[in-house]
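Task: sequence in, structure out. Protein: NISCH protein.
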Amino acid sequence: YPSEFLMQKITEDNQIPVHLHVSVSLQYVAGLKGNALLEFFHGSVAEVENEELRHLMWSSVLFYKTPSMEVMACVLLSTKAIYFLLDDSFVHADEHQSDFWNKENSDCEESSFHLSCCFVLKLNDLQSVNVGLFDQYFRITGHSADHIVTCLTRDSYSTHTFIQQLMAVLSLLARTPSPEPVDKDFYSEFGSKATGKMENYELIHSSRVKFVYPNEEEIGDLAFLVAEKTDGFTNLQSLDILLYVLAFQVHRGEGSAQNTTSLQPKTLLLTSSDLFLFDEDYISYPLPEFAKEPPQREKYRLADGRRIRDLDRVLMGYQMYPQALTFVFDDVQSQDLMQNLTLDHFGE
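Result:
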């Protein structure tokens, strides 16, 4: 340690997504390569001397206590813990959660130090990992509300790679075996026979951390929800969800000296007849074991929905990934063009 392959891989992965803005401190981290990156990890981040950095990933993250605030983070996976180096703007914006963060050093802004808030989740405290639909995100759950974090990778490859690395690191942990006899050492039962209801697919790692994957019923529930939102115009039997992707909706602010662009996180759903944008709660579901009441908001809230037949054209930018798409719809108020074709139609 470190092997040449690891050094090269971590250096390659240390790139901030171009569409997201980060603070000076995180820009500093993104500028480090090879040995400098490892020295930074051991000198400024690692809590134990003999731990090894195994994986680095840039991702948007959400915390259970601040479910509406998405923040950019550099996620560092070591043999002892998962470290989240956070954008310092998150700490200042989140004043009402001051007990959640230690702000002792917040008065050093004018100095030459690059300050960043670091959230640590020790692997020994890890209880479960919930993978989102189509591997677009995953949620890491510890023993309390303070220890629940969702990584919105918006990329199945990044999710898959992180989960693989996490499983490999967890295999190194020496945990005492469960006192009760375990019939299945790796796979848990698929579904609960007592209720007859199919549960999500669970894979129990040798370290006793649960990896929970969504089953096909989640897509069925989503299809039912979409059919409800379309006020019965869609036949549920013929409704197929063709695409589920976590994206951003672009809002352009005008009137200022220069037009500012803000990105609003949205879940985009494409069916055979409609295009939907949903506000999705990525952090509260499924409910953690200690939750005493359901979350304040639903898992899916419809933000916008348009019929594909009203789609006029799709404009594509020429920039590299992530690609920007503009959907232009005909501004038709009526649900059906042939509905009110009376004499009044040809008047004013």
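The first helix runs from residue 4 to 13.
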